[in-house]
């Protein structure tokens, strides 16, 4: 009964903090994922993301990340916007419209961990927001928050896929949720729509061909083979999510920090082509777009317009 009580307490507090949903799974070695990850790396589908090769063991085993860990608490936070960009614009992935999610979610996770410690006692744990070797989507799926779709994003029937995934890994035993079932069926909308054919087979994305990778992670010049295939995306890409039938159920978030600056929505291709460092710093203050830097965004825009 104690485990059930603690789990219910944590889920109630997660909802109060604004999380979309919360699921819990047992912290243990991800046996099924090990060969998949190994093959993906061997096929160089991570491109220049060499950090993906590091900490292979930790990526698959949370007990190597947090001593004595017993539970992975997975959380979803909605970022689906109520407004989108001007139609005549180069495009930015919806997740980057507002304040960098790392800041927003880290604060919520710390609050949740403090709540657990206050209510339950001495619990050790760590908060993770895709900045450490944790397979977020796998843990979220294991804890019943959704299934991993053919585009390799987490999907739920109720709210689609426009949300962030984060975790608390704690040394507290809790009641564990069961995985949900796959509801992609025979649909291939994401595979058919991918502008660069990065979804090489159902459930397998070649990261080195993905527009998100090309516009954010890749530091060299974008390979010439992708000319005319980028679909006006200058930072990230939402195509596989935009075409997914389950995203008909996406509802706008209610996190003020994720609201975009008005300029971001109204700027045209011409405005972007003439963007100055000053405008970049103003529009993207505290934004995830800062990752690509002014020079990176300019590189992407130049590639799209030439």
From TrEMBL:
Enzyme Commission number(s) from the entry: 1.17.99.6
Broad EC category: oxidoreductase
Residues the entry annotates as binding [4Fe-4S] cluster 2: 194, 210, 237, 240
Pathway: tRNA modification; tRNA-queuosine biosynthesis
Cofactor stoichiometry and binding remark: Binds 2 [4Fe-4S] clusters per monomer.
Cofactor(s) listed: cob(II)alamin; [4Fe-4S] cluster
Any one GO molecular function term: epoxyqueuosine reductase activity
Positions of the 4Fe-4S ferredoxin-type domain: 172-203
Primary site of residence: cytoplasm
Domain of life, source organism: Bacteria
Keywords assigned by UniProt, alphabetized: 4Fe-4S, Cobalamin, Cobalt, Cytoplasm, Iron, Iron-sulfur, Metal-binding, Oxidoreductase, Queuosine biosynthesis, tRNA processing
Substrates-to-products reaction catalysed: epoxyqueuosine(34) in tRNA + AH2 = queuosine(34) in tRNA + A + H2O
Binding site for [4Fe-4S] cluster 1: 184, 187, 190, 244
Residues of the active site: 130 (proton donor)
Keyword Iron among UniProt keywords: yes
Amino-acid positions noted as binding tRNA in the UniProt annotation, renumbered to this chain: 219
Subcellular location: Cytoplasm
Record-listed cob(II)alamin binding positions: 59, 130, 154, 165, 212, 237-238
Function: Catalyzes the conversion of epoxyqueuosine (oQ) to queuosine (Q), which is a hypermodified base found in the wobble positions of tRNA(Asp), tRNA(Asn), tRNA(His) and tRNA(Tyr).
Subunit annotation: Monomer.
NCBIfam families assigned: tRNA epoxyqueuosine(34) reductase QueG
PANTHER family xref list: EPOXYQUEUOSINE REDUCTASE
Family: Belongs to the QueG family.
Record-given protein name: Epoxyqueuosine reductase
Organism from which the protein derives: Gilvirhabdus luticola
Top-level taxonomy: Bacteria, Pseudomonadati, Bacteroidota, Flavobacteriia, Flavobacteriales
């Amino acid at each position: 009964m104690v485990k059930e009580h603690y789990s219910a307490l944590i889920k109630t507090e997660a909802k109060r903090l604004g999380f979309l949903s919360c699921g819990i799974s047992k912290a243990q070695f991800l046996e099924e994922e090990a060969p998949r990850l190994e093959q993906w790396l061997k096929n160089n589908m991570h491109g220049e993301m060499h950090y993906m090769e590091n900490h292979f063991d930790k990526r698959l085993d949370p007990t190597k990340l947090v001593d004595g860990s017993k539970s992975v608490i997975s959380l979803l936070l909605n970022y689906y916007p109520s407004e989108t960009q001007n139609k005549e614009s180069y495009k930015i992935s919806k997740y980057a419209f507002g304040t960098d999610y790392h800041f927003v979610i880290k604060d919520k996770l710390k609050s949740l961990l403090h709540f657990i410690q206050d209510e339950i006692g001495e619990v050790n744990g760590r908060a993770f927001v895709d900045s450490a070797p944790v397979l977020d989507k796998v843990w979220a799926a294991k804890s019943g928050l959704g299934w991993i779709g053919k585009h390799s994003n987490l999907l739920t029937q109720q709210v689609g896929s426009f949300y962030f995934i984060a975790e608390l890994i704690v040394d507290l035993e809790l009641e564990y949720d069961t995985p949900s079932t796959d509801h992609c069926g025979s649909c291939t909308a994401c595979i058919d729509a991918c502008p660069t054919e990065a979804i090489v087979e159902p459930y397998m994305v070649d990261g080195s061909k993905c527009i998100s990778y090309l516009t954010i992670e890749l530091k060299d010049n974008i390979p010439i083979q992708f000319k005319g295939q980028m679909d006006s995306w200058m930072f990230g890409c939402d195509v596989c999510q935009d075409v997914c039938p389950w995203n008909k159920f996406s509802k706008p978030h209610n996190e003020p920090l994720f609201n975009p600056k008005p300029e971001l929505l109204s700027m045209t291709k011409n405005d972007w082509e003439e963007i100055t460092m000053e405008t970049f710093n103003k529009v993207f203050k505290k934004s995830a777009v800062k990752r690509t830097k002014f020079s990176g965004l300019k590189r992407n825009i130049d590639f799209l317009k030439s």
